[in-house]
Amino acid sequence: MTGTIVKKSELINSNNRGHFFIALALLDGSDIKIIHLFNAHLHETFSLHRTVALKNLIQRQEHFLFTKASKSSFIKLFKPTEQQTKLAETLVFPDQKSTNQSTKRTISEALLKDVQSRSTITAKVVKVSPVKRVKEGGSLAVRALGIADNEGISKLVLFQQNAEKIFEEGDVINCSNLYCKTYRNRKQLTSLASTEIEFVQDDNLLLLDITSSPPQFLEDPDFNTLPPPPLHTVDEVLFTDVYIICTNASCHRKKYQRGTCPNCAGTSSTESSARASLKLSDGKQVTVFEDNLKVLLGEQPIITTNDELLQQIIEALPITFEADIRTNTLSRVVKK
Ligand SMILES: [Zn+2]
Questions:
Q1: Chain centre to alpha carbon of residue 302
Q2: Which CATH superfamily is 100-223 part of?
Q3: Which residues pair with 19 in a beta bridge?
Q4: Which one, of 59, 32, 55, 200, lies nearest residue 123 by Cα?
Q5: Most C-beta atoms within 10 A of its C-beta, which of 131, 136, 249, 258?
Q6: What is the predicted pLDDT for the residue at 183?
Q7: Dist CA 277 CA 288 (whole Å)
Q8: Neighbours of ion ligand 1 (CB under 5 A)
Q9: What is the pLDDT of residues 162-174, one digit of tens each?
C-alpha cells in the first residue's frame, strides 16, 4: 500500500504490556488506513506528510500492523488537499481508546462531545438500515441505526460484527465507546472496534414514533433500503367523508361517532378531518386520509363538507402519484 502520512500519534502503550507503537493515518486516494508501527527505529522517519510505500503488512479489523517482516520505502512527496487534511484531523486512532474512558451519557450529551470523547449510551432502536458492504471485496460491513432516548435522537453507525448483529425497531441497546462525528453536515454517533453492544431491558425508555416527523438523518443514503415505490393514477372518487375528530392528545385524532369520542366520551371538539375513497386505474380502491390527501392534491384539502372535498378532488383528476400500498394503507407517497 502506498499513502501519505496525514496523522501520527504519540507513543501508545499496547495493552500496557510494554509494547509501544505509534499509530499512523495513511491517506491512500480517498481512503484512510491506520497503521500501527511497532519498530521503534522507524518512528522518527515516518514523519507527517511523507509518502510511503509499505509491503507485507498484517491486516487487523480496522488497522494494519507493520511488523519485523514488513518493508517500507519513501516515495515522491504528495501534498494532501485541505479537505483531506481536515478529514485526517477528525480521525480517531482506535487504540487511543485505552486512555479514554467511555462515559455514560444521554444521546444529546454524547452529540456535544468531540471526536476524542467516548460515550456509553442506552437507547431504543427506531430505525434499522440494511448491512452494506464497502471497501474492496465488500470486506467492511456497515450498518446505520436510528436510536433515541427520552431526550434525543441520532444516527449510529456500526461496523463489522456490531453491524452484523440483528436489530429490530424497539430493541433497547447499551453501546460503549461511541464518538461523535460529523457526516454530511450532521452529527452522528460512530462506533469503534472496541464498541460493545448489549441488548438490555429498560422500561423507562419510550418508543419514539418517527413516522410523523422523521429525523433528517434518514435522508442519508445509508438508510435507502428500497427502490422508489410504484406509480399509481387516481381516475375516480368513490366517496369523501369529512368528520369531527377528538382533540384530546391521548385520543390520537379519533373519529367522533354520533357526536362523541368513542375513546374519552368527549363531545366538545369542533376540529374536523377527512378521508376519501379513491379508485386507481388498475381497479384497486384505496382510502386516503387528510395528510396524504394533502400530498395527492398538492394543497390543503377542503374539510368543511363532503361535497366540497369531493369537488376539490374531482377537479384535480387524474392524480398520478408514487406510493407503497399495503392493506389499503399508503406509505412513501409522492405526487408526480
Ligand atoms: Zn377523545
A1: 36
A2: Nucleic acid-binding proteins (2.40.50.140)
A3: 14
A4: 200
A5: 131
A6: 81
A7: 6
A8: 246, 248, 251, 261, 263-264, 266
A9: 998 999 988 999 9
